[in-house]
Amino acid sequence: MPKHHASGRAAHPWPIRVMHWVGVYAIGCMILSGWQIYNASPSLPFEFPPWMTLGGWLAGGIAWHIAAMWLLFADGLAYLCYGFASGHFRRHLSAPRPGEVIADLGRAARFRLPHRLGYYNAVQRLLYDGVIVAILLAIATGLSIWKPVQLGWLTGLFGGYPVARGIHLAMMGLIVGFVIVHVVLVAIYPRTLVSMVAGVATDPAVAAPMLADGVAVGEVATGEVVKRETAP
Q1: Which of 41, 72, 94, 192 is the Cys-Cys partner for 26 at CB 3.0 to 4.6 Å?
Q2: How far apart are CA 46 and CA 39, in angstroms?
Q3: In the 3-class helix/strand/coil scheme, how is the chain assigned residue by residue?
Q4: pTM of the shown model
Q5: pLDDT tens digit sequence for 19-46
Q6: pLDDT (tens digit, 9 = 90+) per residue, 169-188?
């Protein structure tokens, strides 16, 4: 039977908020410095303007890129440890079923998809899970093209240096795409930015079913929260 209600629970616990902003800084530095490195040997028929790069020249871009990489690695490792240990992944970022994604995309297209602090709909879960995979692949391919001799086995795993570099650039593109979508959604729902800065409480409709151990997070579908009780 449900016992503990989380009506005062923060939409984003402070560890998530801290790691989020550390990750924003690290990813921002890696993207801009990565564009500086790319400009030294473009593989596509364009270059990034200087104002969109970080480092000033190739060596400077590499220095920024490596420093930001280790910061992102530490932040990502802390996030993974926290996510599994706290149950954050299980409660909020469990892989959505195809039917859930299709249904939420349909509601979004009709502007009827509810947005509540503390709840991740199926589309959000798919995007967040996807960007985590993209970041992990970007780090792995980045290491393989940074040390192609010392980490030859890793470079070979990706099909060689050119292929690894292509995958690395593709992952960067996906991450940039995620960032653009994320910023647009924050502009549409500005209170999500406030919740990531301050300890704003979870929306009441979502907080009610967020119980300690007794009840799993409710599914928000057509605007109603469905409680799913689990064994005590």
Answers
A1: 72
A2: 9
A3: CCCCCCCCCECCCHHHHHHHHHHHHHHHHHHHHHHHHHHHCCCCCCCCCHHHCCCCCHHHHHHHHHHHHHHHHHHHHHHHHHHHHHCHHHHHCCCCCHHHHHHHHHHHHCCCCCCCCCCCCHHHHHHHHHHHHHHHHHHHHHHHHHCCCCCHHHHHHCCCHHHHHHHHHHHHHHHHHHHHHHHHHHHHCCHHHHHHHCCCECCHHHHCCCCCCCEEEEEECCCCEEEEECCC
A4: 0.74
A5: 999 999 999 999 999 999 999 989 888 9
A6: 999 999 999 999 888 888 88
